[in-house]
TrEMBL record:
One of its GO terms (biological process) is putrescine biosynthetic process from arginine. Residues 3-255 form the CN hydrolase domain. The keyword Hydrolase applies. The keyword DNA-binding does not apply. Keywords: Hydrolase. It holds the Pfam family CN_hydrolase. This is Beta-ureidopropionase. PANTHER family: BETA-UREIDOPROPIONASE (PTHR43674:SF2), NITRILASE C965.09-RELATED (PTHR43674).
Length: 287
């Protein structure tokens, strides 16, 4: 199966959920016009990332977010298009940093899943665990485009989660992210380069596509890097957005390449063969 993915990076207005949803809806319709079958938007893009004590006021249930999005695009969706976007979720009073996966079609929206961020950073400029709860489930979904995994920003830095996504059949891993720029060397931004190396490593090890959508702009004096990208299963960067500015990239996904790459470099099948022993060793580990 072959299809196009659009990754959208933009600077949301802090805590202005309605205005940000207007921007998101415009991006979805633009991506539809450009032939995308799936649109990925950044982490916390409905509100901005650094809300701290203001998370509750900008939070939504998955149903509320899907309905608000559909209200803005109803009558304008001409064919099925999948959308994944980051938001602060309110689930019966518990707050999460989450990503909604919804399939939009002329008939209406369909909720595919809601993934909750597993690893919450609490170092440097980050203090997420003060304001939201940690997710406890893997986000791999059977979709009309194949098996797709979702990891949110920090999640992809912990190798166990991309591994689990691959073991559970993901052919494409989507990474909505909000990464402030850190580590400057001349014109280079260290964590932007590290993200590229990380996605290449994940793609090569597991024979998966990796697609990311990053926030850009400034919040509270912190600048987000942008640099959204798509990496194919061989580790080649298919397309990459510029840093620091709003942009949409569109890249081709071909699930046949996933199968070919995994046959030529059977690291994933090796992992699956050893899985029972890995589970045993994990069970014997006492942190």
């Amino acid at each position: 199966m072959a299809f196009k993915v659009a990754c959208v990076q933009f600077a949301p207005q802090k805590a202005e959920v309605d205005k940000n949803l207007d921007t998101i809806a415009e991006a979805i319709l633009q991506a539809q016009d450009e032939g995308a079958e799936l649109v990925l938007l950044p982490e916390a893009c409905t509100s901005g990332y650094f809300l701290e004590g203001g998370v509750l006021e900008s939070s939504l249930t998955s149903a509320q977010l899907q309905a608000a999005l559909w209200k803005r695009v109803a009558g304008k969706i001409t064919r099925p298009i999948d959308v994944v976007l980051g938001f602060y979720e309110n689930a019966e009073g518990t707050l999460y940093n989450a990503a909604l996966y919804t399939e939009l079609s002329p008939k209406g929206p369909r909720h595919v899943g809601t993934y909750r961020k597993f690893f919450l950073p609490t170092y440097g400029v980050f203090d997420e665990e003060r304001f939201v709860s940690r997710g406890r489930d893997l986000g791999v979904y059977e979709t009309r485009l194949g098996k797709i995994g979702i990891l949110i920003c920090e999640d992809v830095w912990h190798g166990v989660l991309p591994t689990l996504c691959a073991v559970h059949g993901a052919q494409l891993i989507l990474i909505p992210a909000a990464s402030p720029a850190r580590g400057f060397s001349g014109e280079r931004i260290e964590n932007h380069d590290r993200y590229r190396r990380l996605f290449v490593a994940v793609a090569e090890e597991h024979g998966v596509y990796c697609a990311s959508a990053q926030l850009c702009g400034f919040e509270g004096g912190k600048g987000f890097i942008g640099g959204s990208k798509i990496v194919d299963p061989t580790g080649q960067v298919v397309v990459e957005a510029p840093v620091a500015e709003g942009h949409m990239i569109i890249g081709d996904i071909d699930t046949d390449l996933v199968a070919i790459t995994r046959a030529q470099s059977p690291l994933l099948s090796d992992l699956q063969s050893a899985w029972s022993d890995i589970r045993r060793l994990v069970g014997e580990t006492d942190f």
